[in-house]
Write a structure and sequence with these properties.
- With 400 residues, the protein is an alpha/beta fold.
- It has 13 helices and 17 strands.
- The chain has helices at 84-90, 98-104, 171-175, 178-191, 196-199, 212-223, 237-242, 256-263, 277-284, 300-307, 309-328, 343-354, 371-380; strands spanning 30-31, 42-48, 58-63, 72-82, 113-114, 118-127, 138-142, 154-158, 162-164, 203-206, 227-232, 247-250, 268-271, 291-295, 332-336, 362-367, 386-390.
- Strands 1, 4, 6, 7, 8, 9, 16 and 17 form an eight-stranded mixed sheet that branches.
- The longest helix is centred in the last third of the chain and has 20 residues, at 309-328.
- It is globular.
- It starts with 29 loop residues before the first strand and ends in a 10-residue tail after the last strand.
Length: 400
Amino acid sequence: MALRFRMHLTRALLFSNKTHTIVRSRRCFGKSSSRLAPIPTTMKAWQIHKYGDNDVLQLESTRLPKITQPDQLIVKVHAASINPIDIAMRGGYGRAIIPKLKGLAGGSSEFPLVTGKDFSGVVMETGKRVKNFRVGDEVWGITSFQYHGSHAEYVLITTKEVAKKPKTLTHTEAASVPWVAMTAWAAIVTFGNMSERKALGKRILVHAGSGGVGSFAIQLLKTWGAEVVTTCSTNAIPLVTSLGADYAVDYKTQNVIAELQKIGKYDMVIDTLGGTTQDYSMELLKKWSNANYVTVVSPLLKDTDQYGLLPGLASAGLSMATSTIKGLTSGQVYHWAFCMPNNTALTTIGEMMDKKHILPVIDKVFTFDQLPAAFTKVQAGGARGKTVVEVVKDTVAAEE
């Protein structure tokens, strides 16, 4: 029988850091404070020069990125997280498309590739047209595929990819959120067409609720008044129910499909697993009510890597069309969802976190030089929240 619980989540006390910051001297597109000393021209970053396993990860000294556009910022990274996309990209996932995006941004080659997507840190320099951020601001965000990643001492980003960090979170806590938050937001809101008003009273299934995307999605949907059902392993049930899940189906000891069917039909399914999950999940949706199936595991990058750019796009398109038509025959809507920068959504989420409506869920914290070990942990699966790497040690508590 599916388990129904309500528990309160007690956030583990992590560390915070509010260190003094320094700023690069004025350059072409930058503007900086004369009160602080220039920052270095080089930094340490985890880079790969070829695809492979952990042995391709190298901590190297490289040049700091330069501001070349008026809407860009340089941020000193205090913490960054490890996501499954980082593991996949280390092995070559997206190699048919991502280098082309990098080229559009002025990058000269596929390598070296700096890993990492989300981060929390401090603004060190801003472009001339940056109005909403100042040197010294604490921010969080995600790096785009066009630029180098966040597993470095500094990142170059645009204003579209960053927002003010929640005051109540440390950098370590904040770094665990942006990628999974933007992925969940894309699935639920951008592609799933759900909102706070629409979510009230809706029954929504979130697969793999103890993972990064799942644990965030549960909290967002419960804050909006939805009835949330999730799947997880036996030892993750206390976690997902403490986050607000109304039902937790144990895939290790229960017949998942049968238990999900007993609960009833669903207004939305958020699929973070892919594979055969799609086949039975579509059958769980309500018919002829525009119920949404949204997956964050599309075949787009996999197919372009396997078949080449144009044939891969055609293959992925055919897959999308087939699933869309199948859904339409039952009055259901089928979507792929991709993590996309959205500073407006990130600001909204930050406000929710400051109100304690959503809490960070962190599995383990590593130091910057332990990044390969962090990759190994995430690759092993079975996550209970996020894995974070501290680039600068958190030492001072965040505001309450």
